[in-house]
Specification:
With 326 residues, the protein is an alpha+beta fold. Helix content is 45%, strand content 15%.
Length: 326
């Protein structure tokens, strides 16, 4: 028997809707399947944006970002059916524009709006391979990042010929992705990947934010690199998990959430999915995890009241030596 867990892990690149969803298309529920998936993706991007934007001042690796996520129909189980359902001629369209982000503030990036050019390049003309269709979508997002780093803005052309220029703002360097037919929440250094079946989607946003913040903490604290160089001993993994738990309320506070909701998340999720006889020795027990998280709250509240921000880059106590073995 396996227990569900929040963990630091490596996951292959995922896209909007995978081939696994082709069955839903064949059953005549194409529109609802896509809409349901995009609704969860939107929720993930909204929360993720608040976290990376709110903590940009304290992240070591900061990039210019506009909070936009695209979709490539080549990554769908049946691109032709998806194209018909979404009424698109090409393959590229808007997936999500994170709430409050520069892309959302333009009012131009509604879901499924077709895009024909990114910074003067037509991504539809790029070659793609069926088994590696996700690579073209990654290339499109990389193209956006390159334009933002070089120019601070990027221009998009839509199928009707309209053009929109979007200027970037600083954000912590992590992408958020929704994985189809998956129930896990993982981090792999540059991405946070949440499965569409993850139980946290049933929680209120401020509680769900705890799960996203935990995985983001792994990336911001460099845990993957540290474990790669110091070996994934059980005791090492436990220390990184404890750090991610403890940083969770700091990240949430800077994103505008109540840091106490980090405790609520662990109580809600942990009491059902992280305990008992089958608890992994790479994690503390969920009740211990609650105590570690709660112990951070007084310092966070004090800093927020005195300075208006929770500067974890200066005040957070590390469980590991980030330079050990480097």
């Amino acid at each position: 028997m396996k227990r569900a867990k929040l963990s630091l892990a490596v996951l292959s690149a995922c896209t909007s809707l995978s081939a696994a969803h082709v069955g839903a298309f064949e059953n005549g529920t194409q529109t609802s399947a896509i809409a349901a998936f995009q609704a969860k993706d939107q929720r993930l991007q909204d929360v993720g944006w608040q976290l990376v934007r709110g903590n940009a001042e304290f992240c070591e690796n900061v990039i210019p970002s506009i909070g936009l996520q695209l979709q490539d129909l080549a990554s769908y189980g049946d691109p032709e059916i998806a194209r018909a359902v979404l009424q698109l001629e090409g393959d590229f369209a808007v997936q999500t524009a994170a709430r409050g982000s520069p892309s959302a503030q333009t009012g131009q990036f509604r879901p499924n709006r077709e895009i024909t050019q990114i910074g003067g390049d037509n991504p539809n003309s790029w070659e793609t391979q069926k088994r590696k269709a996700w690579q073209r979508l990654t290339r499109a997002h990389d193209r956006i990042d390159q334009k933002l780093v070089g120019e601070g803005q990027v221009t998009f052309t839509f199928a009707n010929g309209e053009r929109t220029e979007v200027e970037a703002v600083p954000a912590c360097a992590t992408r958020f992705e929704l994985a189809s037919r998956n129930s896990k929440a993982v981090a792999e250094g540059k991405r946070v990947v949440i499965g569409e079946r993850f139980v946290g989607f049933a929680y209120e946003e401020q509680v769900f934010a705890g799960a996203v913040a935990h995985e983001l903490a792994h990336n911001l604290l460099g845990h993957r690199v540290w474990l790669d160089r110091n070996k994934r001993k059980r005791s090492h993994v436990r220390l990184t998990e404890r750090e991610a738990d403890r940083l969770m309320p700091w990240l949430m506070a800077n994103a505008g959430y109540d840091p106490k909701d980090a405790v609520t998340f662990m109580e809600t999720w942990g009491s059902k999915h992280d305990g008992g006889l089958f608890r992994s020795r790479t994690h503390d027990g969920w009740d211990e995890r609650v105590e570690f998280i709660a112990a951070e709250i007084p310092l966070i509240i004090d800093l927020m009241e005195r300075t208006g921000k929770a500067d974890w880059s200066s005040h957070f106590r590390r469980e590991i030596d980030p330079d050990l073995g480097l």
